[in-house]
Amino acid sequence: MNQSVDRRTFLASAGVIAGSSLLGSPVRAAVLPVPSGAPAAPNFGLTKFLDPLRIPPVLRPHSGRHQDLLTIGMTTARLRLHSQLPVTPLWTYEGCFPGPTIEVRSGKRVRVAWSNELTGTIPLEAVRVPFTRPSPANLPGYRAPDGSLPAGVAPIDGVAGLPPWTVVHLHGAVANGHNDGWAHNAMLPGDAQLTEYPNRQAAAALWYHDHAMAVTRFTVYAGLAGMYLVRDAEEDALRLPRGEHEIPLILTDRNLDTDPATGALTGRLLYKLPYATATGTMVPVTGPFTLVNGVIWPHLDVAARWYRFRVLNAANSRFFQLDLVDEAGTVQHDAVRIAGTDAGLLPAPAAVPAGGLVLTPAERLDLLIDFGRFPGQRLRLTSTGSPGEPDIMEFRVERRGRPDPVTPPDRLAASYVRLRHGTTVPADHDHVFVALLPPNVANEPNPVLWELAEITDPAELPTRFPVPGILQLTDPATGKVRTFRKVASLFDDTTTLFLDRGQWAVWHFIQLGGAPHPMHVHLARLQLLNRWTYADLAAFDLASGGTTTPLPAPGEGPRIEKWEEGWKDTFQVRQGEWVTVAGRFDGGTGEFMYHCHILEHEDMGMMRPFVVHPPEVAPFHMHPGGSGHSGHQAGG
User: For residues 137 and 156, what is the distance between their CA atoms, to the nearest angstrom?
Assistant: First the structure.
């Protein structure tokens, strides 16, 4: 990572308010027209690619008597997201948005004290607006010129008074449950969350963020996120780009409030939640401003050589479809190689698919880009199909070519093993079945998650269908009809999923309609095994939340690309897909969570707990409904 950027340099470049003095000269906000029904200019008066990309400072733990130590303060800060904007109040780690990049060594235990030093209530405006097309959520501001609220627009009750109640989750970490950032274990200012991370995992780009129960969508939006890099000897030996040629790219999107009378952007964060007035269904939040490392539409000066970018989608809900585009508008995928995914390096660099790279919330990509092909040119990183402005950032390549000291190797992680059902995933493994259901199932206005258990006793099978909470599915691996019942849905329903430490588990995510869901499983690294797609979901009855007849077996879905075979912890499950992923739960014990990583979905109920315990303890654990593990289910 770039070692030349310290915290003071970062804060100065961000235009931080220190006391009452602005570090840097004041800048007048652009005066914009008041948002109306007509689409505004996509940049809303801000000059694209005006500001340089900021590189978050790097923190490495210092050695104590028994282990490496870090203290990281959560503080309220005022930073510039663009030099043509006023400062924006934020909740941050160490005064930075995003937080500092923490860099550790694999196998080296680190203790972190996350100190809550935040002040005031949450620094954002949160409102509901009626959902229409084009969506008003992708326009800044929400008040009429006289300051009144238009029809259907209202503050989200209670958000303005939210205190700084926080708990940090290290996303992708292999650690015990008491270090995982359990959502209910949040703390108020004046306290610290003490955690230990064993870092017993391969080199990977993890990230840390707030995970407070029911309000994660607000706290992360307010700024509480940062990157965490694990290094190991295997990665060191590859001689990939390092130092100033290895750069984090943390992608987010945000909306901003405006002065009602002038239309000028105030700099204050605006959380603008669309909802369907007829049903009350909430639409996940996206914003018109794309940020990289906390800067709206930045640029980066690069040498004409290979670079390594650690890319993270830290947005609440926005999917980025990434393309590298030259000055003529031509997509230049040949200059990009994918070196790794969420949880580590690939066995070999993978090509970018012709349709670009879709990066869902919480996913990471390890990208290698050869700028030596483009001396003196400007290239853009774009997001195809994004609402509003597709541009993300600009790369400005130096004119002078020079010998490149780095050539990416043909082979990367020699330790990588591709998982196969029944071979590298042993026959003795658990199965977990989770249904992802669209809005308006049984009058529930938002998407829901059902934990499923198979009905194996013929005497328990219903005689007539549909039955609420009962799904009949044709297993794509065996062709047999299987009947499942809902055993849990909300987070605080009874825990039903118990896994033995060291056990392999295959998770089945079955999406029966609605928007895609990036499903994240805590604790383990996993691989995508299969992806099937239903041609017809007509047998699923929305009103009852059950199937009228068995759903036919899904057919083969889109092929699994080479880069999708990597170790991951977050997986996209699209409409009508049955996706299976597998991993071994041997890195820790305790209570963990799995959930959709669209933060609005997570907070509105798409999150459930699971327990990992030693197998010797399992016989003594009185599970709900008798002995046995919900996860220990027969099947393909």
Answer: 14
How many angstroms separate the CA atoms of 435 and 386, rounded? 28
CA dihedral (350, 353, 357, 363) positive or negative: negative
**Residue 65, Cβ neighbours under 10 Å: how many?**
5
Query: What is the identity of the amino acid at 171?
Result: H
Cβ neighbours of 620 (radius 10 Å)? 8
Go through the chain and tell me how many residues it has: 636
Peptide bond into 189 cis (omega under 30): no
Count of alpha carbons within 13 angstroms of residue 34, beta-carbon side:
11
Count of alpha carbons within 13 angstroms of residue 225, beta-carbon side: 26
119 burial via Cβ count (<10 Å: 0-12, 13-18, 19+): exposed
pLDDT for position 42: 62
Residue in this structure with the two tokens 């995992």, named with its chain if needed: 201
> Which of the four pLDDT bands, split at 50, 70 and 90, describes residue 66?
low
More confident residue, 52 or 626: 52
Can you tell me whether residue 218 is helix, strand or coil? helix
Helix (H) / strand (E) element for 205: namely strand 204-210
Alpha helices in 39-174 (DSSP H): none
Q: How many CB atoms lie within 10 A of CB 290?
A: 28
- Cβ burial of 447 (10 Å; 0-12, 13-18, 19+) is buried
Q: Are 220 and 599 in contact (CB under 8 A)?
A: yes
Query: Cα separation of 580 and 526, whole Å?
Result: 10
Using DSSP, state whether 263 is helix, strand or coil. coil
What is the average pLDDT across 165-187?
Answer: 98
Q: What is the pLDDT of residues 279-305, one digit of tens each?
A: 999 999 999 999 999 999 999 999 999
Model confidence over 548-587: pLDDT tens digits?
999 999 999 999 999 999 999 999 999 999 999 999 999 9
* Cross-strand pairs, 448: 437
Inter-residue contact 511 to 577 (CB < 8 Å) = yes
What are the structural domains of the chain?
430-620 (2.60.40.420)
Asked if residues 367 and 311 have their Cβ atoms less than 8 Å apart, the reply is yes
Q: For the chain, give me the number of helices (H) and strands (E)?
A: 4, 43
At residue 188, φ and ψ (nearest 5 deg) are -100, 170
What is the number of alpha carbons within 13 Å of residue 261 lying toward its C-beta?
A: 0
Alpha carbons 368 and 416: distance in angstroms, whole number: 19
DSSP 54: P
Q: What amino acid is encoded at 456 in this protein?
A: T
Per the CB < 8 A criterion, the answer to whether 276 and 340 are in contact is no
| Long-range own/partner contacts, residues 329-334 (CB < 8 A, 24 or more apart) | 331/356, 332/373, 332/374, 332/379
pLDDT of residue 64: 58
Closest to 472 measured CA to CA, from 580, 553, 351: 553
